Amino acid sequence: MTKPQLTIYLAAPRGFCAGVDRAIKIVEMAIEKWGAPVYVRHEIVHNKFVVDSLRDKGAVFVEELDECPDDRPVIFSAHGVPKSVPAAAAKREMIYVDATCPLVSKVHIEAERHYDNGLQMIMIGHAGHPETLGTMGQLPDGEVLLVETVEDVAQVEVRDPSKLAFVTQTTLSVDDTIDIVAALRERFPAIVGPHKEDICYATTNRQEAVKAIAPDCDALLVVGAPNSSNSKRLVEVAAKNGCNYAQLVQRATDIDWRALEGISSLGITAGASAPEVLVNEVIDAFRDRFDATVELVETAQENVEFKVPRVLRVPA
């Protein structure tokens, strides 16, 4: 039988960002430097394939520091941790390496600077997300108030409306955040914002690439994990920008083929913690069923690279 024709619009940029790439390298280099096992507090990045690959090399993933022995190195995930975590590791005289993405660390520094200037913080973010917990944990209890929606802005109770600043989680929807910031500025005209937008370059670039292809796609798949904030935002962006069927898949085995019957155009992208091998796996699955033509749609080029900590440089 003749395969149905399909045009695949492959978004670029997609997949790994510099912070994810750096965090994975830190775990790999730690295993090389200290041997297995090396402990990692929380998933180093939100992707099962990546986590399983590192586990096979000797990484042990835990949720809390008290699950780690004193005599083995521990790595803090790319999402960042509250100040209490490295303090507890230091008290136990543990070897620890902070793999927090430098762009998340920038938000931590902003929050501390505002606190030192006597300002109470409002954080735009998702409750319970590791990055939100890490940022809020940089300051004493009550100094960072969380809002998730425009509606939350109307309800938040602050200490002094004239002494406020805001920061944001780095993986949010750019468009949604604009609305929340506008609501904050309307209610609190004196509120101080970041010198430069907190949402990271990779989040912004991947959302813009999805916006470029979504109107032309019968369906759009985001390769990413269900606990990946930036991946879920890409699904939402696709749906808001003209694509009637947008879904998150961890890999090719998750594809709902019945839902894709009759399509002639497909968009594919990947969250910032999804490796390219999984994107290729999805493309190959469509080539098995369709006469597929792949068109790259590139909306930006990325050349950002973050250095790994000096302590992990292993001599050749």
Automatic annotation (TrEMBL):
Q: Give me the residues that bind dimethylallyl diphosphate, please.
A: H46, H79, H129, S228, S229, N230, S273
Please give the start and end residues of each transmembrane region. Answer: none
User: Known EC number(s)?
Assistant: 1.17.7.4
Q: Which Pfam families match?
A: LYTB
Q: Which InterPro entries match?
A: LytB/IspH (IPR003451), RibuloseP-bd_barrel (IPR011060)
Q: What is catalyzed by this enzyme?
A: dimethylallyl diphosphate + 2 oxidized [2Fe-2S]-[ferredoxin] + H2O = (2E)-4-hydroxy-3-methylbut-2-enyl diphosphate + 2 reduced [2Fe-2S]-[ferredoxin] + 2 H(+); isopentenyl diphosphate + 2 oxidized [2Fe-2S]-[ferredoxin] + H2O = (2E)-4-hydroxy-3-methylbut-2-enyl diphosphate + 2 reduced [2Fe-2S]-[ferredoxin] + 2 H(+)
Which residues are listed for isopentenyl diphosphate binding in this entry? H46, H79, H129, S228, S229, N230, S273
User: What Gene Ontology terms describe what this protein does at the molecular function level?
Assistant: 4-hydroxy-3-methylbut-2-enyl diphosphate reductase activity
Does the keyword Oxidoreductase belong to this entry?
Answer: yes
Necessary cofactors? [4Fe-4S] cluster
- Protein name per the record: 4-hydroxy-3-methylbut-2-enyl diphosphate reductase
Q: Which organism is it from?
A: Donghicola mangrovi
Its gene name is: ispH
